[in-house]
Amino acid sequence: MGSGPAFGWSHMKTVVWFRRDLRVRDNSALYEATSEKGRAVVALYIITPEQWQEHDDAPAKVHFWLENVRELKTELEALHIPLLVRETKRYDQIPRLITKLMAEVEADALYVNAEYEVNERGRDEAVRAALKKKGGKFLAFTDRVILAPDAIETGGGTPYTVFTPYRKKWTEHASESAPSVLPRARKQEKMRGISSDDVPEKVRGFDFTSARPDLWPAGESAAKKKLSRFVKEKIEGYDDRRDFPAVAGTSTLSPCLAAGVLSPRQCFEAARDANNGSIAGGRKGIATWISEIIWREFYTHILYSYPRVSMHRPFRLDTERLIWNESDELYDAWREGRTGYPIVDAAQRQLVQTGWMHNRLRMVTAMFFSKDLFLDWRLGERHFMQNLVDGDLAANNGGWQWSASTGTDAAPYFRIFNPDSQSARFDPDAKFIKKFCPELADVDPKKLHNVAKFTPLERAACDYPEPIVDHKRARERAIDAFKNLK
Ligand SMILES: Cc1cc2nc3c(=O)[nH]c(=O)nc-3n(C[C@H](O)[C@H](O)[C@H](O)COP(=O)(O)OP(=O)(O)OC[C@H]3O[C@@H](n4cnc5c(N)ncnc54)[C@H](O)[C@@H]3O)c2cc1C
Questions:
Q1: What does the pLDDT look like over 95-130, one tens digit per residue?
Q2: Is the pLDDT of residue 11 over 80?
Q3: Between the CA atoms of 210, 211, 212 and 213, what dihedral angle is there, to the nearest 10 degrees?
Q4: N or C: at which end does the chain have fewer Cβ atoms within 10 angstroms?
Q5: Are strands 137-141 and 40-47 parallel, antiparallel or unpaired?
Q6: What is the predicted pLDDT for the residue at 414?
């Protein structure tokens, strides 16, 4: 330990600072802290309203976080670990808050699970330095992902930028040394003098009226149950059903993974066990689902290795020369689900109403935004973040840059989805469209999959807008813009 005015208590404690790892099971920082004999553990959660607003964290997501912190408090109390809840506006005030708090509770060690975004890394480095000055210890564990983002690299020692070889290497690595789900954290002796704080119902600057706890119940038990049910009932059919938004074919576990109510290890292990220990082969549905977990790891690897993607910059720097359209009218129509393309509108309304969007539709609507409307993908990325209950910088940025063809392993710029054919292929009976665009309930699905055949008169009859763009012409314009970069 470093020098300085050391924390000097006879019975030192460890503080476990929870961030996006809101669970007691399979939590590396908590497990390690509680495994150390003779040390008591105190838990901490910090609310940072201004920082969250700056990061465009959605009110629905912040609500989901707080609900989970409440559940976490109960789970921690069963282990006799008090949860302290503090609030400060921004990350830069955290080093001071933590050193003060650690002195108050007589702790000299802080354990966390590592986070990889630029601001979060900066915050943690500042906390580490502040603690070091006081002779305190800061330990960060790999927990948000299965393999640390710098654990695997290409033969040339560089980060991977293409998914398929990354997945191959990841699979080899994980087959040999994937960490297993951890044993339960140890229950400690009852602690005198420190008791848990209340978890606030409100956070300044966030309006929780859009939150949907009916769709996204909080707590580890609910998350674990959802995972078990998915693995038992749906995972085998995942490959065939995952692209159809009207079918409940995916796990919908993303909010739990994003908030860390569930660990990726728990998901990976449950799937691998159901696949008789196989990661890449075996049952197709299971292997495909594991591959999605690896996409999550891949985008974290990219975010960590190329910090510019955290800072509103494209991975492909040449695409900074693209001149995007500037149109509030087009942007608002897309945001509000009034583009005249039923599949896009239904998707956008699903996002706003539920805080979640089906993966196929995220690709369709992000590509429509960046290619058909030729609007700056960063605006679309931001709107998603401001509404998603599962908003995660690495995955959201990765998905947007994939769709806009500005990213690492992005869709080639000339392969632009046709919203009509995506709609016909993945929502053939227009069941999904009709659920979120009820004004289209009586329209023949064939017309909903063919904007040209859905006449202005018919549109007017159901109070549904004209298409705001002609796909064919927009496609050519987007391709030309990318070609001109060369
Ligand atoms: C434009 C765009 C934006 C996106 N934004 C986010 C986001 O903010 N947060 C987020 O978690 N996912 C995001 N995704 C990825 C994906 O759409 C969601 O993870 C998925 O729809 C969540 O549903 P699910 O839990 O049923 O997934 P499942 O199909 O059951 O997959 C299991 C888990 O794997 C992970 N996963 C699946 N697909 C991807 C992917 N392409 N990239 C990274 N991780 C993946 C998720 O954690 C997911 O919960 C985005 C994709 C696109 C195209």
A1: 999 999 999 999 999 999 999 999 999 999 999 999
A2: no
A3: -160
A4: C
A5: unpaired
A6: 87
Ligand 1 pocket, 365 CB below 6 A?
Answer: no
User: Is 251 near ligand 1, meaning CB less than 6 Å away?
Assistant: yes
Active site residue 295: yes
User: Among the options 324, 418, 450, 458, which is catalytic?
Assistant: 324
The superfamily (CATH) of domain 13-144 is HUPs (3.40.50.620)
Q: Among 117, 390, 401, 408, say which to mutate for ligand 1: greatest number of ligand atoms within 8 Å of CB.
A: 390
Which CATH number is associated with domain 145-180+218-305?
Answer: 1.25.40.80
Q: Break the chain into its structural domains and give their ranges.
A: 13-144, 145-180+218-305, 317-483
Bridge partner residues of 84 (DSSP): 44
CATH superfamily of 317-483: DNA Cyclobutane Dipyrimidine Photolyase, subunit A, domain 3 (1.10.579.10)
pLDDT confidence band for 2 (50 / 70 / 90): very low
- Ligand 1 pocket residue status of 396, Cβ below 6 Å: yes
Residues facing 107 on adjacent strands: 13
Assess whether pLDDT exceeds 50 at residue 5: no
Give Cα separations from 182 to 265, 333, 379, 455 (angstroms): 9, 48, 40, 59
